[in-house]
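=== RUN LOG ===
request id: a7f3
mode: sequence -> structure
chains: 1
length: 159
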Amino acid sequence: MKTPSKNNFGKTHPWDLLLGFAAIILLLWAPAKCMPNQYEERIANGDTETKNTTAPPPVAANKAPVNSKGKALFRANCSSCHYASEKIGTGPGLKGVLGRIPGGEWKYNWVRNSAALTATGDAYSVQLKAKWNNAAMTAFPALSNEDIDAILEYADAGE
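=== RESULT ===
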């Protein structure tokens, strides 16, 4: 192989540098274009254990899909005081909440106006307010029953 040509001042000729860069680019580009794609080879050989599949991962048997409406409503209305877990914030953690609260219309009345429900003398709401140092829960009168159900189902399952 011929050594790079040098001018009178001992510097490498510009064409030699250009050819060197071209060789490096060719070496980096050629393997990507000329080598077989390992993923395509595995598919062709019937390998189903590839990492690059487009199917979403299966949902774990013990974990339900996320209630996206409930999650969005929870984040917009509840997350400043509550967590959808057992973690305590300004208010109680709401994981498992549906097993702790009275049934029927109670949940709708509580979410829409807890102060009014407590003022009626409802035993559970009076007890709950006392447990949380008489902290007032924000009223959400605009939430529909369906919205409240979505929020509580999301929070009940936990994050």
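=== NOTES ===
The longest helix spans residues 14-34.
The helical segments are 14-34, 38-44, 68-77, 106-112, 114-119, 123-131, 145-157.
=== END ===
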